[in-house]
Structure prediction request, 446 residues.
Amino acid sequence: MKAPRIATEVPGPRSRALVGEEARNLAPGIQSISSLSGLAVARAEGSVIEDVDGNRFLDLAAGICVNALGHAHPRYRQILKEQIDEVTVGSFTTARRAGALKKIAAHTPEGLDRIQLYSSGAEAVEAALRLAKSFTKKYEFLSFWGGFHGKTAGTLSLIGDGTKVGFGPSLPGTYLTPYADCYRCPLKLSYPSCGIECAQFARQVVKNNTTGALAAIIMEPIQGTAGNIVPPPEFMPAVKEIARENDALLISDEMITGFGRTGRWFGCEHADVKPDVVTMGKGLGSGFPVSGLASTETITKATPWGNPSGSSSSYGGNPMAGAAAYASVTIIEEDKLVENAAGLGEWMLSRLRDLQERHEMIGHVDGKGLLIGVELVKDRRTKEPLDKKVCVRIFQECLKRGLISMVYNPHFRINPALSMAREEAETSLGILDEVFTLVGRDGGWR
Ligand SMILES: Cc1ncc(COP(=O)(O)O)c(C=O)c1O
Prediction:
């Protein structure tokens, strides 16, 4: 399928009717990208989404990093169809799940070859917390400002943004410390002269806040939800050192950064760090809800986590999940999607830096592979984020031109399918350029 192709106003009459019909029963709170677009989707292929009015859009969001392979990859469809005809329920070994685990273990950091599968990212992170408690026999956790790990009670306590506001006290024993977000340094320092003082600060947070029972530090190697924020390469090794000093585990939450998204199989590879536990999801299933964790034989044996039924769940690693993971990893390998993410990502980053020269509202651009963050600002000097209302207008203008992106937020995240073609990326950035010019002119920006 080719995009963009816009045949009606957006959203068109059929989308409006179907979205309106569903709205009578749909509880509020679905993803902004869906509610702001007002689209009802008919089908999708590669990096193109077609709505029920026949409009076609290029997709720079990829289900928020879920869609690694591109929509409706023929081999993915074939493998899942075969599995659905064979067996769909239960935790018994299947050939595809065995194949998936072998393939995942071939790509995880060395030694992290024991894998358990789950259904959602939050569930996998919760399992990692239980594993860390089981292994260390301790119970406190450190996480980072800006970090996101899910919306269950445990993960909500670890996240460092406003998502948890209104939900009452966090779990006892959870502590937060600033992340190395150098564009907006929480310590108001400048890299590299800061000597990554934030790591030293984290050390003090552990010392002064915990009761000496730190089980794990959990971090995203690149923060996704916060805006695809890339820390300096020394940051993750320094965090690992703090974990070691405290006999605690390092959990690398690779829900977003895993499976090639950053141009390497796992985000921690950029910092040359071997975590003790890696949590994974999103691109692992490329649309099927499968997540998981990987750790060592020694750590995963720890009880009660490693007891019979100690780490399992009803759907984790069921035959369909095993098949989806097998299909995703096989296709990422065969279609050389890690390499495409690295090459196309680098090209997009340089094109976005060109756009930054021409559009005053682009304050900062950074990324790794196809995980790119663009900071939209009112004023480059103060770095004050662009008003949400202006961002939503940019989003709507892009939509009208056939582009779906996450530009409704001033921490604009660009993360298309790993299979996106260069021509599609070029068209997408062309639309953004046009819309930034239009909105910039109206708002008095350059
Ligand atoms: C790094 C990270 N961890 C965990 C999660 C939670 O995943 P889920 O929404 O599947 O529960 C997310 C979701 O965006 C994430 O980005």
About this structure: The chain has two domains: 74-334, 336-388. DSSP finds 14 helices and 15 strands in the chain. The CA atoms of residues 103 and 403 lie 34 Å apart. The pocket of pyridoxal-5'-phosphate is lined by residues 120-122, 125, 148-150, 220, 224-225, 253, 255-256, 281 (CB under 6 Å).
